[in-house]
Each structure stands twice: as structure tokens, then as C-alpha cells.
Amino acid sequence: MSTLTAPSTRKNGKQWHTPKVAFRPTSRLTSYSQRLSSQKSAAATKAKERELKAEKEEERQRRTQAIRDKRAAKEEKERYEKMAEKMHRKRLERLKRREKRNKVLKS
Questions:
Q1: How far apart are CA 55 and CA 72, in angstroms?
Q2: What are phi and psi of 81, to 5 degrees?
Q3: Which of 30, 47, 62, 74 could form a disulfide with 34 if both were Cys (CB 3.0 to 4.6 A apart)?
Q4: What is the pTM of this model?
Q5: Mean pLDDT for the chain?
């Protein structure tokens, strides 16, 4: 007969501790197929995260570009208004057309 008591009662009286188990490193290892499937799911998750991050960054870039464009248009309008104070309206219109042609040629 065994001198061990029931698993619910420990001999040293420390019932609040979890019972110790033998160290068997191979018993808890996952199989290759399980590891492969978990790696695939992790890779898919990372790809989705990258995609969302890129989408968010693209949206941010679009917003900042819109702000830059708006500022440039405002500065150009102010410049033309300043020029309009000094020169004749028809000459100013000719200058605007010439600058637009040059912009198209440069880009």
C-alpha cells in the first residue's frame, strides 16, 4: 500500500499550492503542423496590420498635401491681388496666363 494521501490533501499541509508535475519537455511541445498554422495566422495578421497602417499613412499624406495645396493657392491669390493694386487688369491677366503656361511646361 501507498503512504501517499489523496491528491486534495498534501502531506506538508500546503494545500493552496498547485501540485508539482514531473519535468517532461517533450510532453507539451506543439506539433509541426500546429506551429505552421499558428505562424500562418500570425503572418496574415501582420500583413493586415501593415495594410491598415499603410492606408492610414496614405490618408494622412493626402490630408497634408491638400493643406499644402490650399496654402499655395492662397499665397498665389494674395500675390496676384498685390500685383493688381499696382498694374492694369489686362496686363495682370496676361501674366497669369503666361505663368500657367510655364507651370504646365515645367511639370
A1: 26
A2: -65, -40
A3: 30
A4: 0.49
A5: 85
